[in-house]
Amino acid sequence: xxxxxxxxxxxxxxxxxxxxxxxxxxxxxxxxxxxxxxxxxxxxxxxxxxxxxxxxxxxxxxxxxxxxxxxxxxxxxxxxxxxxxxxxxxxxxxxxxxxxxxxxxxxxxxxxxxxxxxxxxxxxxxxxxxxxxxxxxxxxxxxxxxxxxxxxxxxxxxxxxxxxxxxxxxxxxxxxxxxxxxxxxxxxxxxxxxxxxxxxxxxxxxxxxxxxxxxxxxxxxxxxxxxxxxxxxxxxxxxxxxxxxxxxxxxxxxxxxxxxxxxxxxxxxxxxxxxxxxxxxxxxxxxxxxxxxxxxxxxxxxxxxxxxxxxxxxxxxxxxxxxxxxxxxxxxxxxxxxxxxxxxxxxxxxxxxxxxxxxxxxxxxxxxxxxxxxxxxxxxxxxxxxxxxxxxxxxxxxxxxxxxxxxxxxxxxxxxxxxxxxxxxxxxxxxxxxxxxxxxxxxxxxxxxxxxxxxxxxxxxxxxxxxxxxxxxxxxxxxxxxxxxxxxxxxxxxxxxxxxxxxxxxxxxxxxxxxxxxxxxxxxxxxxxxxxxxxxxxxxxxxxxxxxxxxxxxxxxxxxxxxx
Length: 564
Prior knowledge:
Blueprint: H1 11-15, H2 31-35, H3 41-53, E1 57-63, E2 66-73, E3 75-77, E4 82-83, E5 90-91, H4 96-109, H5 119-122, H6 135-139, H7 158-167, H8 182-196, H9 200-207, E6 219-220, E7 260-262, H10 264-275, H11 282-289, E8 293-296, E9 299-302, E10 305-308, H12 310-313, E11 317-323, E12 330-336, E13 341-347, H13 354-367, H14 385-388, E14 390-393, E15 399-405, E16 408-414, H15 416-422, H16 431-442, H17 447-460, E17 463-474, E18 477-486, E19 491-497, E20 503-508, E21 514-519, E22 524-527, E23 537-542, E24 545-550, E25 557-561
Antiparallel strand pairs: 1-2, 1-13, 3-4, 5-7, 6-7, 8-9, 9-10, 10-11, 11-12, 12-13, 14-15, 14-25, 15-16, 16-21, 17-18, 18-19, 19-20, 21-22, 22-23, 23-24, 24-25
Helix pairs in contact: 4-8, 7-8
């Protein structure tokens, strides 16, 4: 399961309190919850504008355990015509790690574990270098575990998971570095089973999902105990629908690192209970709150969370997020300890994700300004979309296919040169370094690379070459596209790898990178990107040529329309 690291504006967590009605005390369940789908009018209008721009999901904001704002927008199921409500259930992805960490710390409270216990001591059947890592190091992603032990929605039983984790190499000696690891949290789930004497799912359900007052907060997206309530269908940016929760398991590819599901109200209630001593001891809650492993820039990794200190935004807070999985949901939750504030947001469509919404509205909330709304397109009538459609070819070999529908243009890029021009990175992202790591992976220079290469060759035949097809930043991660030539057929894929070359995410035979544009006045087009997190480019068409200009820079790329 992926955890995104978008630059969540801490402003969201600090002054959102000023934007909601202060004393609604909205009940969490039943008809009253459905009737309370409104925040303070200005914020309600702003969220409505974001919904018009493409946000589809749910928002819950509470203070001291009382809800100030419950809101839902968009469609839970396009085919069924069912809308999202405050009681719609979403997959929370890597936020599950916060629950696993809490389970470990509860066992610490019970005297059944120590943070300095080595994984191999608790699980004698665990082989490999990770056996020497401590529970503390697994919690903080400092164990050195690098790479994946299994895919989320491919069956993997317990013994196979233990063996696969034991085979993983370490990027560094335990405790001497940092690399985010899904496998590390699956190992923690295995440790929870061993120390508790019951299954991971049963322990979590009985001890971490049951809130004070005995109310149950959610459950699992696939398998039992299942999250109860109407579910949102996830929609990927290529139009595919996500996993519906009918995966039959076994689930050890994502157990402990993903898999939980709930409403945003449940998630907010759970976060409040966690940090106020309702689920673990005050000592354990203080351990979660940090400080943890220093990540630089005022951030530190704590068990299941990332802590931001006062120097970053003026108010300490903790946050964790999940998304990018096969379900097609994105979720984020923020805890502001000084105000006992929780903000939980979930989304089921890619156009404006939960994290992107927080990033867009946060700074204004922090400053006490009106919440910004997305810029509206100049209008479908500005520019001849039909005249722009067709194929365009770069002299260096790449190409674009331009199509028009509903007042928008979609450009599909093929070839590294075409992708690079249309998707320039924002900030200081080093795409070239990522591409080198992907090529090293597919060249089999690491254990995980050798295994990946062997699996691909088993399916498609021996490699005859690997060619880069460009890199993009999507869902908060760098994805490098490649074309793998084999004796049977060429195979396209993209890979997202960490700084140590471990596979974070991958997809075989994906759709080529594409960008949707809307008119921007003066015959130019800009990305249909309400949250402003995508590529900063401007596109124009004239005299059978397409020009692509990076915002704020002179020059650009000019592409001729294909003849014939």
